[in-house]
Amino acid sequence: MKLDHLRAGTGVSHCRVPYLHIARNPPYSALIIIPCCCESACTPLTIQEQQSKEKKSYGCAITVVLSMAALSAIIWFAPKLYVSKTGTDAGHDHHLRDVRFEHGELSETEADEYIGDAACKPCHSEIVKRCAETRHARTMRPVTLFDDGDQYRSITKISDKDNGVDYSTSVHHGDCIQNGKVRSGESLIKAVWEIGSGKNARSYLSEQMPEGTISLRLSWYAMPKKFDFTSGQAPGHSLTTVGGAALSREDLTNCVQCHATTVRSGVSGPNLANSHISIGCERCHGPAKAHVAACSAGKPAAGQLAIELLKSASSDRVNAICMDCHTSAKTNLPGRPATERNLARFSGAALMRSECFQRTTTLSCTTCHDPHLNAEQQAQRSDAACLSCHHEGSSNKICIVNSKSACSSCHMPRQVADDMPYTLYTNHWIKVWNRE
Ligand code: HEC
Ligand code: HEC
Ligand code: HEC
Ligand code: HEC
Ligand code: HEC
Ligand code: HEC
Ligand code: HEC
Description:
Blueprint: H1 2-8, E1 9-12, E2 20-24, E3 31-35, H2 39-42, H3 47-77, H4 79-82, H5 108-111, H6 125-132, E4 140-142, H7 145-153, E5 157-160, E6 165-172, E7 175-182, E8 185-190, E9 193-195, E10 201-205, E11 213-216, E12 218-221, E13 226-229, E14 244-247, H8 249-256, E15 260-262, E16 276-277, H9 281-285, H10 289-296, H11 315-326, H12 329-332, H13 337-342, H14 347-351, H15 355-358, H16 365-368, H17 379-389, H18 407-411, E17 414-417, E18 420-426
Antiparallel strand pairs: 2-3, 4-9, 5-6, 6-7, 7-8, 9-10, 10-12, 11-14, 12-13, 15-16, 17-18
The structure holds heme C (7 copies).
One heme C binds at residues 355-356, 359-360, 362-363, 367, 382, 385-386, 388-390, 396-397, 407-408, 411-412, 430-432.
């Protein structure tokens, strides 16, 4: 049941709001979280399904109307208590866009519901400090001489015999440049944004140009410490320009939103300079301006925090939030060659294949990962997680090879993903590998 739900909802990116809708009660800065009654808006249904859904929807609609009425009544009778002191939200009754599931560029008004990590510091300083050191917080940055100069100065010459272009990198007038030499001349493109913290790799984007933003031909790889062709742009792949792959406005937004918190809309494309790039608190916790307002007014009563309580959320809910980026509906389809070749890279898709996941209801990404820390700080926590289910006296199997430690080193091996050169990933399909 659980698996079905997630499979349908690996539609995570297909159905943008798999479990909850967050709505705002118009004039006040209180959040109401109501269960999603709108699967029909997400998945095409048969007529029978439609009819049974409609009945359910009426039920839901009535519940929602009643609870809205009850809430409005409370607010009516206790106005001083509930009206936002700052009053900044009064009068806005626009839809609150939740970037966790509703993708795309945000309007100014929508983006203004996101307040940024610095605003959390006064009350959650420890977590803010920890998160700032994670790779989530460094997964997209502007290219700078300080961070990238040495790499761009390292002499690199890479030839694509298919299109006859010699590529190289350099630094000109303080800019990091990728060059493509063709017989008729040279294409020089300035790298403006980098994607990827550099643990495994960094890819580069140009500024917006008439042909769009270009995902540049060369990426930097950490393992060999050198540039090589960007994933998906090796010789033989069709390219839109000599310098790399031109991204349409939609492609660019899609690319960036797994590496950013909020993407603001601009005139001819997303306004990256004004967006919150890299992954901050609100990419997992949702818009938090109302929460900060509620807490700044004094310690709020239970139920008045105006933020989802992820600590007590279901494993499905947490998985859906993480898998919004760590897997994708397309790559998750079983049996597709690209899925099989790249399974190690998609932790969510792989984990869902494990018996451990399928036979239980509690396994989630946070069983093994603290979302506010990097992966390598978690090995012990991961062993502890395995042992919480596979221990003497439990009804689950016990390992006859090593029943105490190092579980993931054998059951979650480090592997390559075919489409990503020079990189090893932890295959999250927990099983006995190489048993034929
Ligand atoms: C003025 C103080 C204050 C500020 C600023 C603040 N919070 Fe909180 N937050 C609280 C309080 C109080 C709670 C209630 C739980 C507690 O005591 O930690 C809370 C709880 C939370 C929870 C719920 C934890 C759970 O139980 O699952 C999350 C998530 C959270 N805050 C995130 C944020 C984020 C993200 C920001 C910044 C955008 C932020 N907070 C800013 C005071 C604050
Ligand atoms: C569906 C979400 C998603 C989209 C879209 C996406 N990425 Fe990523 N990207 C990820 C995740 C998740 C990782 C981390 C993978 C891991 O370490 O397991 C990642 C990692 C990377 C890395 C570091 C190498 C690595 O695998 O650790 C680079 C470089 C990168 N992405 C570039 C891009 C570029 C360029 C685009 C757009 C053209 C893009 N990504 C689009 C989710 C996404
Ligand atoms: C990658 C997703 C992600 C990011 C980024 C993130 N969180 Fe969390 N956070 C979670 C999840 C999931 C939980 C529930 C954890 C659990 O079950 O232990 C959580 C729990 C919390 C809690 C309550 C539990 C506790 O440890 O006190 C607070 C408060 C919180 N986060 C604040 C923040 C703040 C502030 C930031 C930004 C500096 C942030 N989070 C960034 C996913 C995230
Ligand atoms: C907005 C998209 C997004 C969301 C949501 C997200 N991640 Fe990530 N995550 C990434 C990307 C991109 C990277 C690669 C960071 C880099 O560039 O090295 C990453 C890296 C990681 C890493 C590896 C960090 C390291 O040490 O290399 C872990 C572990 C991780 N994420 C766990 C989680 C968990 C758990 C959640 C849910 C609570 C989550 N992520 C939610 C995009 C996301
Ligand atoms: C939430 C509980 C839970 C957690 C956590 C868990 N497992 Fe399991 N696992 C199970 C269940 C249930 C099965 C089904 C077989 C059984 O009863 O042992 C299973 C099956 C397995 C199998 C056999 C799979 C197969 O395809 O033959 C292996 C190997 C395994 N687990 C190893 C691990 C390791 C290693 C970890 C930690 C990285 C882990 N498990 C974490 C519950 C869990
Ligand atoms: C049973 C434990 C377990 C669960 C559940 C789990 N992970 Fe992991 N994860 C690990 C271990 C162990 C590593 C390797 C840590 C290291 O680098 O030493 C890892 C590494 C990662 C990395 C770093 C890149 C890589 O492939 O090495 C990412 C990203 C990641 N996990 C994401 C996730 C996401 C997203 C989920 C939920 C869909 C998840 N993990 C669930 C144990 C787990
Ligand atoms: C040195 C590699 C290694 C380590 C470390 C290891 N295992 Fe195993 N594990 C195996 C092998 C190989 C098998 C298959 C044994 C057999 O049936 O012949 C196995 C079998 C299992 C099984 C039974 C699977 C089945 O279907 O019969 C479970 C459950 C399991 N391991 C869990 C764990 C846990 C939990 C840990 C950590 C406490 C762990 N393993 C550590 C290699 C390892």
